[in-house]
Amino acid sequence: MPVNWFMEIHKWRLSISEEKLTFLEGATAVLGGLALNWLLPFTLGDVGGRLANVKNKKRSAAILMILRTISLIVTAVYGSYAVLFYLDLSYYYFFLVAVIVIILALLLARIYGLKDSRTFMSIILISLGRYILFTSQFMLIIWALIPELPIHLIFAGVGWIFLFRSVIPSLFGNFGVREASALVFFEQYLDPSTLILLPCLLIWVINTVLPSLVGAALIFNIKVNIAQ
User: Fold this and answer.
1) What distance in Å separates the CA atoms of residue 157 and residue 193, rounded to the nearest whole number?
2) Phi, psi of 190 (to 5 degrees)
């Protein structure tokens, strides 16, 4: 979990390098935004947290949208495999998704600016690395708690869960969407299917609740310093 959020903080600082944020400022923006998501719907807290301490809010907001689009593209590729697996469809559809992803990536590169292609590629690699990290984390937790599930099924199930968590708006740190989508996917493979709720709740606590507490502490500390 610390590595996961360290990568996200580094990615945000790298993407708006002209702002010259310190690591503490980047951590406050990212983790503070995560904490604010508990108060504001549809991850608006994340937007507010990241734009609160930047000078060029218009450019930073545009970059944040690009970062979210990159994350959504990665999630869509992995999720498309999960959907094909669940619906027992031909994997030829996956190549169609790959072509669409390449086109979107080129468009994003154009928007971000080809002059800064090295930074853009670094952001892409960090996004991929972070996705692999928390996907592996979730898979390990499911495998540890429900060892009878085959690994390829866990792999597809995690992709399914992350896809629906990303495309369906929700409140309170995506609580509920993750669990409902997990029940839908694992219903035909797990008896009782409610066993999948424990790893889902655990990953939610690890990757959302605990970092939110850190973010709330950072925001509170900044307010106290300003007041003094």
Assistant:
1) 12
2) -135, 135
- Domain residues for the domain of 187 are 2-227
DSSP string across 146-194: -TTS-HHHHHHHHHHHHHHHHHS--STTTTTHHHHHHHHHHTTTSSSGG
Give the number of domains in the chain: 1
Return per-residue pLDDT of the chain as tens, 228 residues: 999 999 999 999 999 988 999 999 999 999 999 998 888 877 888 998 999 889 999 889 988 988 888 888 888 888 888 888 888 876 667 677 777 777 776 776 666 654 567 788 888 899 999 999 999 999 999 999 999 999 999 999 999 999 988 887 655 555 678 888 999 999 988 988 899 999 999 999 999 999 999 999 988 765 544 444
Question: Is residue 214 classed as helix, strand or coil in its secondary structure?
Answer: helix
Tokens at residue 113, please? 């600016």
- Tokens for 133, please give them: 């990290």
Asked if residue 69 lies in contact with residue 104, where contact means CB atoms within 8 angstroms, the answer is yes
CA 176/CA 183 separation, integer angstroms: 11
Q: Is the peptide bond before 199 cis (omega within 30 degrees of 0)?
A: no
Q: Which two tokens stand for residue 189?
A: 């493979």
Q: What is the pTM of this model?
A: 0.85
User: Where does 16-150 have alpha helices with state H?
Assistant: 23-36, 44-51, 57-87, 92-112, 117-145
CA distances from 144 to 68, 110, 136, 225 (A): 30, 43, 12, 43
